[in-house]
Amino acid sequence: MITIEFLACTGQICTPLHQEFILLSDVLGMSALVDALNDLPVSAGTESSVSGPFFTEDAPDVPLGESSERKGEYLYAEGHVCTTSRAPIPGAVIKTWETDDKGFYNTQYADRIVAYCHGQLVTDKDTKYVPLFPSLIPFPVTQSGPGDLLLALRRHIIYPNHLHMI
């Protein structure tokens, strides 16, 4: 019965934009396992990873060197997109998503209207990308559902600073 109540609680905090069961799958390691089994790494390529529960497809276009959000301090990042044989890929689309200066993804807000702290940028002719990421701070896993599971296991519920890019 405790398991059923836990799953019911997890389901009750899901919305069309915020899927707590994806976060639960991440917490249990199932997402990474499925990804590792189904998307074997290409020699010299970047390993695939899960997009998690906070990715959305409605990211605004962001010019190189700018940010989709204007809050907090920024982390500067740059890189190049190329094939595994190092051939450049100009015009590659990179989607990014991060937390805001409070440590929350925009999908965690009930009054979300636009995808702030999400961005879509395109590499230049030199395949370079230069996004600015807003306020990358550690943030807690939701205190209900997956967060409750972590606390019951006596594990911390804080995610470290990190970047999301596909």
Brief write-up:
This protein is an alpha+beta fold and 166 residues long. It has helices at residues 2-12, 20-28, 30-38, 146-152; strands spanning 74-76, 79-80, 93-97, 118-122, 128-129, 132-134, 139-140, 158-159.
What does this structure look like?
Keywords: Dioxygenase, Iron, Metal-binding, Oxidoreductase. Belongs to the intradiol ring-cleavage dioxygenase family. One of its GO terms (biological process) is catechol-containing compound metabolic process. By secondary structure, this protein is α+β, with helices and mostly antiparallel strands. It has helices at 2-12, 20-28, 30-38, 146-152, and strands at residues 74-76, 79-80, 93-97, 118-122, 128-129, 132-134, 139-140, 158-159. Strands 1-6 form a two-stranded antiparallel sheet. The radius of gyration is 17 Å and the shape is globular. The model has no long low-confidence stretch (mean pLDDT 79).
Radius of gyration: 17 Å
The secondary structure category is alpha+beta
The count of β-strands is 8
- The ordered H/E elements are HHHEEEEEEEHE
Domain Catechol dioxygenase N-terminal: 3-39
Domain Intradiol ring-cleavage dioxygenases: 65-165
Pfam families: Dioxygenase_C, Dioxygenase_N
Protein name: Intradiol ring-cleavage dioxygenase
Name the descriptors:
alpha+beta, 4 helices, 14% strand, two-stranded antiparallel ribbon, globular
Layout of strands and helices, then pairs:
Blueprint (H helix, E strand, L loop, with lengths): L1 H11 L7 H9 L1 H9 L35 E3 L2 E2 L12 E5 L20 E5 L5 E2 L2 E3 L4 E2 L5 H7 L5 E2 L7
Antiparallel strand pairs: 1-6, 2-5, 3-4, 7-8
